[in-house]
Amino acid sequence: MKNLFWGGIVLLAALAGCGSNESPTRPNDFTPLTSIEIVVKPPAIAQGTSTPLQALGNFSGLFTRDITAQVVWASSTQTIADFILPANRVKGINPGTATVTATMGTITASHVLTVTDASVTAMDIAPLAPSTPKGLPQQFAVFGKFSSATTTKTTQDLTFDANWASSDPAVASISNAVGSNGLAHALALGTTTITATFGTVSDSTQMKVIDPVLQSIAVMPTNLSLLTLSTGSFAATGRYSDGSTQDITSQVTWTSDPAIATIAGGVVSNLVQGTTSIGATLAGFSGSATLKVTGGNLTSIALTPANPTLVSGTSMPVTATGSFSNNTTRDITGKVTWSVDSNIATVDTSGGGNLALLNAKTVAVAQVPTTLSASVGTTVTPGKNNLTVTAPTLKSNSLKITPIAPFNQNLAVGTSGRFKVTGDFSDGTTTTTQDLTINADWTSSDGATATVGNVGLAKGRVTGIAAASVTITATYGGQAIPATVTVTQPTLKESTLGLTISPPSANFSAGTQLQFKATANYTNNSSYDVTEDVVWTISNSNVAILADSTNQPGLVVAVDSGTATLTAAFGGLTQTATLTVP
Amino acid sequence: MKRIWQMMSALCLSLLLCGQVWAQHDGPYVGVYLGMNSLVTAESRDDQGSFNLEYDPALQGSVVLGWDFKPRNSVGEGRVEVEYARRSNQLNEAEFLEGKVKGDGNLTVDSLLLSSYGVYRTPSRWTPYFGVGLGAARITADALQVSGQPLANDDAIVFAYQLGVGVDFALTSYLSLDLGYRFFNTTRPRLTEANGSKFHTEYLSNSAILGLRMGF
Prior knowledge:
The complex is a heterodimer. Helix content of chain A is 3%, strand content 54%. The A-B interface holds A 1-2, 4-5, 8-9, 11-12, 15-16, 18-22, 24-32, 59-60, 62-63, 65 and B 40-41, 43, 45-46, 48-52, 77, 94-99, 101, 118, 120, 128, 130, 146-149, 151, 163-165, 181, 183, 185, 202, 204, 206.
């Protein structure tokens, strides 16, 4: 009760200060107009020329306002001075004097305007010989020098009254329209002559149209979310004065908060969880975008399998798993730097993504462990394992070939399954079994019925091509082991029944990964795991991404808050799952 | 006005010297309040743009009819009441794009609110409270003028709410003095200008009030 009471007091104190106090934007048309002043420059004009008039309203002595557009203009003697468009412009028709008036409501102001008999003797155009970037306007002005027997020499702005022309309108056009007199537009590279003519007098200047200039920079994507340890790219597009655009990613100067990310050539790296603005600057123009780094910062690295033992000349996949500051873990095999004694083993990452193959060299070595380590930068302790390489002998007739569940040596056309092959090794006293899937040579007795992968992680993966039976053979160390695979060609169920995704939706936090499974369902009620056979896509990479579409099909990593759609496509069917990252 | 405040201050000072526990009233009560209110500069807007209206502070009055809950009852410590209040402030200045000009006329608000107040019981005669009220208000632009020219002469009914805080002093078991602050706000009334166009304005009042409630 006491907290509620004092909470109310605080709320009340806050509300007491409420109320907006914006600067007003509405003109005051309540206060009565009491007088009008007509402003004329110059006081006299030559016949055939014109000049704009201005009306200033005085409102009860409290304030003045330009009311040029609100008053009604009139001339007492239209044969001497008359109004033309725009409405406040008066033109001298014949020498003499005329009274011009400006009226608003009941208030009227008058001014006696003199029209002289002076004639133009020379004209000066300005600016002289301008260079204008393609696509930009160029305003010209022209001033006439007047004289007569009865008046002194005067100069008058003839920009409105002169006739404008361009010698090459394809290079630059110039306007004679009311309100834009003398306004040229640079249309194409080249040079044109701009001429202003009044009566029988004219003046000209060259106008050179030069290369278009940068007007703005756009950085794309405008919002990018990335996981720590990853990289991403921004692109800068320049918009030029002629309306063209150009990729200027390599020309701009990129900036970012170095505590969050470094950027070079538009590529961001060294990501630390947080948000930074990404800037691109060139020739005084700049554009920006926002980079949000998610997934926590790396705290430790663990390697699997733990302390492996490998037979000399054989291989196995190794995985690095990172633990992050947001209490998540994910596969970072493709992000670490591997190191091992090169006299004993190598780590092959040429398969890309999160694939790393540990290869024991074909050398006779003692069973002394060596260190296999994976590191990221220098601030996190590397993950380390002991690797033992042995040199036993493969026992005769010891190869065993086994289908990896759910594969049961039956396939539908277009689906795939995996075999693994093992061999028994002996050093005379101890027999050990080693997975040889990656080192065996795999062949199919009929490639038109089923193919079998024989490179990298694809080794042992059988794909059904046509209905029939086929023999798959794994060969290693002079030994061969066959297995039979039967391929059928059932019909997929229609629509969403033919392809399912498990789980059908997911809600997982940034930095975590989730394995999805795709199943193809056929009209004969058979089903096959097609996780490795479908094409996986995600609608919004700011929300979630595929961990490694080549080596880890269906493995999804959450990136940032939002909702995205995971789509699997197989056999002409598609199925979706909703991904939600809170 | 100054004399009234002097009398009220003297009364309050004398009450400060009292400190014994007092029996809490429960049941119906009536009350009457008087106070000063100040309006926040009202940002207003029509199809030509925005302008600000500034009003002079003014007296306000209200009457209430309510029910004191019995102490430690299941509903809670406090009271509910229906309040009718009237505020009327003179337009002092109007600010447009060109600057401020003199205003005239009154903006009058009649409000009817249903309020609920929670109290914080103390062993003394003093009982702080905090409450909220909801209801309706009729806002009347009574011959509002700018530079001597008519601005608006119209009225509108709008939703209103009020937050209040204060302290009760029990004079007797049935009579208590209430010194409080009220924050009163409404949705923006839409009023007609003299030229026929419509404008929205805001109404936001801060008030200091002194009242007497009598239970029976």
